[in-house]
Amino acid sequence: MLNNLTDCEDGDGGANPGDGNPKESSPFINSTDTEKGKEYDGKNMALFEEEMDTSPMVSSLLSGLANYTNLPQGSREHEEAENNEGGKKKPVQAPRMGTFMGVYLPCLQNIFGVILFLRLTWVVGIAGIMESFCMVFICCSCTMLTAISMSAIATNGVVPAGGSYYMISRSLGPEFGGAVGLCFYLGTTFAGAMYILGTIEILLAYLFPAMAIFKAEDASGEAAAMLNNMRVYGTCVLTCMATVVFVGVKYVNKFALVFLGCVILSILAIYAGVIKSAFDPPNFPICLLGNRTLSRHGFDVCAKLAWEGNETVTTRLWGLFCSSRLLNATCDEYFTRNNVTEIQGIPGAASGLIKENLWSSYLTKGVIVERRGMPSVGLADGTPVDMDHPYVFSDMTSYFTLLVGIYFPSVTGIMAGSNRSGDLRDAQKSIPRSHGSSPKTEVGELEGIPFPESPFRER
């Protein structure tokens, strides 16, 4: 044993610690494979060779995050071919994206979309917390079955570039691949229209309401005005997107990291808002007449009467339900019998609102949105409701299967990861791992895996 150690120190090509060459040229001891050392450059903090891909350094992770791209490999090659037309072709680089950058982040960007930010709160408010959990469970079960099937196909053979269509057509045949590819194309087309309308709704309803071209004179015309605005602005946004596709999506890809940062910041803002509202709820008042919700369109003060100096005067709300602003005017019967109150629209998690919203409250089209638990003096059965009064009306009939159909597109973002199969370093491992399953390793597959070399091996 002592002779073997002496041979290791005095052998040809051996580097002594005192030779002024303290830096290893390779992360492996006694290795002469220079290309192998370059492959694992920046990742030599792992203990064994098998840990190089699973335990990269923080610098490697940050570098990959900085080079995050929205384009699959085929799109990038197409852009480079157009830019270098007639010139020397660049060699195609081998795919180097791992599970986190190549599958997890694209799925995250597609799942957290317009449905989650615009419609999930409305779905929970209509269906209640219990049925909402049931709805999410049904949708996630469908997604889980799809992910398991995708993982089975990915681990069944070599995964080519081309995404879900190539995976299915090369594994199950062109018949299945063509059917799934057609459905996927139609789903992507309708999803594009959905995202455009969601963008316009956020723009006009929350960010810049003054940008609306068509404005409603009363509450009954707000839906028609919003529809006309969506037609105009939707055409403009679709034209801009078509121009981007015509010019080249590589310019949009330069902002891929910015878009990813916006998604992550939005997720963190949701949790921060829940925590803040539990201790310090925001001021978002809602006006109620009895238990009926009133729209703020047409009045500013949530009261029947107001004090001006030493005189009692009627408010603008009085004028909307009565024949005149005089105190002896003839008013609506429901307005006369019930009081006007103002409550907070976002009371916070500590207000006990979760217990009140456990169960569903489905509505039919045209009924007034009422607040449960508020005192109200009703009218006789068959008394008509004046649609010109500033009530908040339900604009559609809601039921469980309808809400499932509205929410389901938000869980279809798992296909974004499989669409980058050509960019993944090991698609057979990355796709199943990101979708909640692990690839199965057979005993026969272990025969070709080299074990880590010992630093004290004999020559």
Automatic annotation (TrEMBL):
InterPro entries linked: AA-permease/SLC12A_dom, KCL_cotranspt, SLC12A_fam
Gene Ontology BP terms: cell volume homeostasis; chemical synaptic transmission; chloride ion homeostasis; potassium ion homeostasis; potassium ion import across plasma membrane
Keyword terms: Cell membrane, Chloride, Glycoprotein, Ion transport, Membrane, Phosphoprotein, Potassium, Potassium transport, Symport, Transmembrane, Transmembrane helix, Transport
Q: Where in the cell is it found?
A: Membrane
| Catalytic activities | K(+)(in) + chloride(in) = K(+)(out) + chloride(out)
Provide GO CC annotations from the record: plasma membrane; synapse
Task: Give a GO molecular function annotation for the protein.
Answer: potassium:chloride symporter activity
Residue ranges annotated as transmembrane are 103-122, 134-159, 179-209, 230-249, 255-274
Q: Where is this region: Disordered?
A: 1-46, 73-93, 422-459
Amino acid permease/ SLC12A domain span? 103-275
Please note every region of biased composition (Basic and acidic residues): 33-42, 75-88
Q: How does it sit in the membrane?
A: Multi-pass membrane protein
Q: What is its main location?
A: membrane
- Biased-composition ranges, Polar residues, are 23-32
Q: Record's Pfam families? A: AA_permease
Similarity field? Belongs to the SLC12A transporter family. K/Cl co-transporter subfamily.
> Can you name this protein?
Solute carrier family 12 member 5
Q: Which organism is it from?
A: Catagonus wagneri
Q: What is the lineage of its organism?
A: Eukaryota, Metazoa, Chordata, Craniata, Vertebrata
Gene from which this protein is expressed: SLC12A5
